[in-house]
Amino acid sequence: MDIQSVATLFGTFAILMVLGVPIAFSIGLSALATFLLFMSFDQSVYIVAQQVASGLDSFTLLAIPFFILAGNIMNRGGIALRLIEFAKVLGGRLPGSLAHCNVIANMMFGSISGSAVASAAAVGGVMSPLQRKEGYDPAYSAAVNVASCPTGLLIPPSSTFIVYSLITNGTSVAALFVAGYIPGILMGVCLMLVAGVIAKRRGYPVAERPPLREMAEKALNAMLPLGLIFIVMGGIVGGVFTATEASAVAVVYTLFLALIWYREISLRDLPGIILESAVTTSIVLLMIGCSIAMSKAMAFADIPYSISDALLGLSENPLVLLLIINVALLVVGTFMDMTPALLIFTPIFLPVVSDLGMDPVHFGVVMTFNLCIGICTPPVGSALFVGCSVGDVKIGQVIKPMLPFYAVLVGLLLVVTYVPSLSLFLPKLLLGY
User: Fold this and answer.
1) How far apart are CA 365 and CA 383, in angstroms?
2) What CA–CA distance (Å, rounded) separates 427 from 433?
3) Helix spans in 92-180 (H)
4) In this structure, are residues 226 and 108 in contact, taking their beta carbons and an 8 Å threshold?
């Protein structure tokens, strides 16, 4: 490994980030600076542009704009309120029932919308005033919302897994989707256990049981939104359509719900929703394209395999090496958002875990779980910022109530890391993976 290449690549990236340059441009310019060490300016620009264009020329990537559009339609289509009402039915008789409702609603809405930030805003915006009214500590309420909003990134359909599949040259999207179910559900259940213990100690109220007819009505109202998961995942697992085709089906289904069935949006709202989705998609795809160029620069300088050799030289114990990788990813997650971290560090750590015999689907779940924790942590946690904003509390107030949730999430991360069957059981059972 050329030390000068490493210093140029990561040094340029760090300097540009400190200067406030948008992350996509920071990634692309650091790749360009690295190529300039080996070839002329014209050749370097040509290679970077070629890598950006070829990296985005992927049928699999078409799923991302469709899922983003489906999520935005749901955000505007009254889906969150119906899922929250159903969550009250499921968690209403537990200690601190509104906190449990928050977790369950985030699991359902996050898995449908595919966005932790959207989930934190939509669910937290409804739950925070209700929890204040019932005497909940606002900082505790915000902590529950922030900790639970990333659960939907593990429970499919998830754009994160689509990006990971692209980076790893075609790891099965269907297998990744199915692999996220058990870790994602365990994540929500563990957060509910912590919330329940805290609620019991503080004497938070238990909701009154609504009439059976009302419970049935709320459950029925949530069935159509939740039906999206069954349609998308059933179609993928059953081989009816690919993940990309499933994303288009998701758009049609959400349009039907929001525009025709619930009538929460009108045709006049669609241009704004499509424009918002296009802007979000352009940001994500630009980061992906520039990250493909950065990966090429790293491969050109032999950085991933050199880091792999260095880590394998530290210890021959796979348990120790996986712990080191987890710690590194947790640190990365505190200062880098999820998508760029996934794009930059997957090519670095994948050769290491491959040498350890770790399945790429299992590693995809572990890496996503790691970065889910990262978006809840300061100083750059996007979910933390949004959760505090909708909860009307300061970040400093939320950190202490978040500590028990951090501890449980890190503990569960280690369990998911060292017990591969939690991730691989369902892909093997349903897909013969």
Assistant:
1) 19
2) 5
3) 97-113, 116-133, 138-148, 151-154, 159-167, 173-179
4) yes
**163 vs 280: CA distance, rounded Å:** 15
Q: Which helix (H) or strand (E) covers residue 200, if one does? A: helix 181-202
Q: Is the peptide bond before 271 cis (omega within 30 degrees of 0)?
A: no
Residue pLDDT tens, the chain, 433 long:
567 887 888 889 889 888 888 888 888 899 899 898 888 888 899 999 988 888 788 777 888 888 888 888 887 877 777 877 888 777 666 777 888 888 988 888 877 777 788 788 878 888 888 888 888 889 999 999 999 989 988 988 878 888 898 888 878 888 999 999 999 999 999 999 999 899 888 888 776 667 777 778 878 878 888 888 888 888 887 888 888 888 889 899 989 988 888 888 888 999 999 998 898 888 888 888 888 888 888 877 777 777 777 777 777 788 888 999 999 888 888 877 788 888 888 888 988 888 888 999 999 999 999 999 988 888 777 788 888 888 888 888 898 999 999 999 999 999 999 999 999 999 999 888 7
pTM: 0.84
| In contact, 139 and 401? CB cutoff 8 Å | yes
Q: What's the CA gap between 69 and 254, in Å, rounded? A: 9
